[in-house]
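Supplementary notes for students who missed Thursday's class. We covered one full example, reproduced here. Read the sequence, then the structure, then the short commentary at the end.
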Amino acid sequence: MTRAILVAAAAAAVIGWAPTAPAGASGTHRHVGARGGVQAFLLSSSPDSLTDLRAHAGEISVVYPTYYECTLSGAGVAGADAPSIDSLAHADGIPVVPRFNCQEGAVVHRLLAEPGPRAQLLARLTALARRPAYAGLCLDLENDGPADREALSSFVSELGQKLHGLHRRLAVVVDGVTHEGPGAPNSFYDDRALSEAADTVFAMAWGTHWEGSSPGAISTLSFVTGVVAFLRTLPERSRFVVGAPMYGLDWTGAAAGGQPLSLQSTKPASAYQYNRVVALARSVGAHAVRDPLSGELSFSYTGAGGAPHQVWYMDATAIADVLGIARDAGFQVGLWRLGSEDQSLWSSPVVR
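Structure (token representation):
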């Protein structure tokens, strides 16, 4: 056994995630492991994430802490890990797969399409993956367009090969879609190609409405069902994780006379954790109503200066509905993000 393999094996004993052969070496799937439960993202900058991880470690199979962000300087990566998170996860045998997050489409484009920044990013991420505390890396690149579809797929393929050579895993985050090809809502991601190169593809099964849209359900159940149906058509479907959101959105509008808020009349919504939404509803005396198409709760209120607001949010029932659809179809499930979500979720069988 070479020194590199010995080091990888020692790290695996600590993180609870055994080394695997590179993609295609044995023709077998590269599963997450024997642990049940849910995969979960957390924000290392938010103390409630660490508290939540500590409270529910037994139900979490993989944790994706947001340690790193994109930049066009410093080899494309900024940020640092959090030893407190790593130590807690390792004590409970939870693999730590740090998230590299880039939400700026123009920056994503340069990192993927320009040879210099691309090579620097690839080298930097590979170097980070060598850290003994890590079971791999999670790549979360968003808001780029279809012109970089092949560039993303080839980058994931290159990074996957390098990480597998280090006996590390690669996870990739994608938008959940009900179909690909002409007319698809986001053709930046080639789910088939990405699932062939990565060990895990985390499909965000939400976004029916978002911060920049008109108000409405964050994740309708028909959309989730469509995402799951599409993923079942792909050959590497065992590598997909269907993710549910655990937050709420508060839209401020300019509509009057009790009319519903429209995209033209609203400002970008503010995203709140569940606890803050509940406190908000209590403070304004609002009564939340459950939407039958999404299972989500919503309410309206009048804010400062008489501005109308409309709020939609995920409680334990709504989250469990999404996870249940995925579980019934045989998929692994995940959550965005650990923090101040509806804590009654953790008594549901869908998270075990």
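Commentary. Residues 114 and 151 are 10 Å apart (CA to CA). The chain has two domains: 3-204, 251-311. If anything here is unclear, bring it to office hours.
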